[in-house]
Amino acid sequence: MHSHRKTSLTAATLLAAAAVLVGCERGSSTGTGDSSGGPGGCPETLARAEAAVRQAERTNVPWNGPTSGPEAVSGKTIVYVAQTMTNPGVAGAARGVTEAAKVIGWNLRVIDGGGTPAGIQAAMSQAVALRPSGIVIGGFDPNSTSGQIAQADAAGIPLVGWHAVAAPGPSERPKLFANVTTKVEDVARISADWVIARSNGDAGVVVFTDASIPFAKNKSELIRKELATCSDVDLLAYENIPIPDASTRTPQVVSSLVSRFQNEWDYSVAINDLYFADAAPAFRTAGKQGSGPPFNIGAGDGDPSAFQRINNEQYQAATVPEPLSEQGWQIIDEFNRAFAGRPASGYAAPVHISTAANSRGATTWDPAGYREAYQNIWGR
Q: What residues does the Periplasmic binding protein domain cover (predicted)?
């Protein structure tokens, strides 16, 4: 056990003591101080993490996405197949697609897979049977619907994924014209770095994941790997809770973890913000303050409810939001490139950390200028 878990000091006293004794910058979320001594455990890792967090918390980053491409191809119909519309990230991206489709002048239909393998397969079968111009793989593993993917490919229907595979850009196996996402390595690293920086390199951490989704499992493994770069950061628990089961299972798991670890647990990272919505009642029942500890960061997706929890200090301190609206517009732009016989854009938005300090009451985050950029490209 490390020093922060050997004492019965309150969290506030601990933070104050750390600031006085260590005097090391804790990231912009907690302010800065004059350095009068080194952190325990991982000074080089801590310095790198603090620099990365400062960069990710900036809000004045200019648009670095595409500024050129084919003009709008007319008369297209897109079907968005959602893993489940109860997943805020999936739903947020769907809203962005809806908005962009209206601007470019296309028809759009959303089919909800309901979060079950059978439901997603049925939704994909329905989508292929409609013979649309393109299909969005909205937040599920394309390999779980390999038969329908093959049918779409045979019918010449391009597929664009949102969080469908691990990496942004085109995919050969499974066959996707493009996959729209931030780089999972960057999201995982910065969420773990936030814990390292904010805790001054001394934390007891719980990680929440959904191992049934390859993308999510990969993200949580990368989070675990980055946390391990600091020797005084302890991974207390690695909890696998499928997203469709989160509302029922998370409260029970959190209650058990609080009982088991008590004050040792002072940070959490989840692959999706929604775990903290479901964890809040259990934290409240256990007498935990909404402002922490544990200090919780979501490594995606940055939906409005996550921002509300952060801004109101209700059991979430930060999120690494996907720019959901921008990504919806990018999905439409990728289809437009496919229809025009052009290659995918290859764009992946840079990672960002939203806190109460830098979100200023906002409930979403998107890079500035994306709407104007895409409208200029499409001639709309």
A: 78-337
CATH architecture of 3-60+185-319: 3-Layer(aba) Sandwich (3.40)
Q: How many CA atoms lie within 13 A of 41 on its CB side?
A: 22
Instruction: Report the C-alpha gap between 125 and 81 in whole angstroms.
Output: 10
Q: How far is CA 232 from CA 79, 195, 225, 229, in A?
A: 48, 12, 14, 9
pLDDT in tens, 125-153: 999 999 999 999 999 999 999 999 999 99
Residues in CB range of 6: below 8 A, 6 or more apart: none
For 90, phi then psi, to 5°, come to: -60, -45
Q: Is the pLDDT of residue 20 over 50?
A: no
In 3D, which of 273, 274, 208 has the Cα closest to residue 247? 274
Q: What is the pLDDT of residue 2?
A: 52
Fill in the DSSP letter of residue 55.
H
Longest dimension (CA), the chain: 67
**CA dist., res. 96 & res. 168, Å (int):** 18
Q: What angle do CA 342, 347, 352 make, to 5 degrees?
A: 165
Query: Do the two domains 3-60+185-319 and 77-181+325-349 of this chain adopt the same fold?
Result: yes
DSSP 116-171: SHHHHHHHHHHHHHT--SEEEEESS-GGGGHHHHHHHHHTT--EEEES-SSSSEEE
Residue 259, Cβ density class (10 Å: 0-12 exposed, 13-18 middle, ≥19 buried): exposed
pLDDT 10s digits, 175-233: 999 999 999 999 999 999 999 999 999 999 999 999 988 778 999 999 999 999 999 99
Domain 77-181+325-349, architecture per CATH: 3-Layer(aba) Sandwich (3.40)
3-state SS assignment for residue 270: strand
